[in-house]
Amino acid sequence: MLIQPDELDQKRGSDDLVVLDCAWSAPELGRTGKEAFYAEHIPGARHFDLEAASDPASAYPNMMPSPDHFAEVVGALGIGNQTEVVIYDGSYVSARVFWMFRRFGHERVSILDGGLKRWKAEGRPLEAGDPAPFLPKTYEAKEPDEDIAEWPDVLAALREGSAQVVDARTKERFTGALPSGYPGLASGHMPGAISLPWSTMIDQQPPYRFKSAEEAEAAFRAAGVDPDKPIIATCGSGVTAAVLALQLTRMGRTGWLVYDGSWNEWGRRPDLPRSSLGTD
């Protein structure tokens, strides 16, 4: 699931390889992923626009698209079903994009371990501006497995204990000490959810790697989450929840779902319960 910078550097320029920069920012940061891509990216990389690749009909951001919509976006990037794809960003978005590719049946996909931060820290080359020209390809996306939870599933899990609801947002977002990060969206968390910030899954200092499967499991257990029991991962808009899903997959666990609507849906619904400042 992970590729190291040395290996990617050796493969760059291969005819059957596409490197995707999936830079994306939450609205409160006031900058777009495309702007970040044009400022600097790995030579030869193409920009994967998470928002453009998400469900255009949804009222919530970053929702999983239909197979046809995903195929259209990916094919336009010059990716075919047999193309090797390497994904990177500056932090955590790569896990979401990786899940999207795997969900629609693409097996030849991996994440650059340490992402752009590690690439830059190791002094590897960068470029700016437009990507090199490329031709679109025809892509066929498979029908996905049922790995997405809806809000009734989450509510039932919280009330009945049928699954552990694990929130990947930062502790401050979870408690409500910081605003949600989205205009008009209330702060707080789902009563009974467990806080396990995505940052515990990735080294926040050089070399910025994903924690090992053993370290990730220890972090789950330290937070009071049993990886051997069903888990529903949630976050702000389904992006950092994919970091938990990635690590669970690396740990060999399959009993997980992602609540794709996440707090963007839950926090906007007055009929669903919410708590803040650590009170359940």
TrEMBL record:
Hydrolase as UniProt keyword: no
Domain Rhodanese: 13-128, 159-275
Keyword Coiled coil included in the entry's annotation: no
InterPro entries: Rhodanese-like_dom, Rhodanese-like_dom_sf, Thiosulphate_STrfase_CS, TST/MPST-like
Gene3D superfamilies per UniProt: Rhodanese-like domain
SMART domains: RHOD
UniProtKB keywords: Repeat, Transferase
Pfam families assigned: Rhodanese (PF00581)
PROSITE patterns: RHODANESE_1, RHODANESE_3
Name of the molecule in the record: Sulfurtransferase
Organism name: Jiella mangrovi
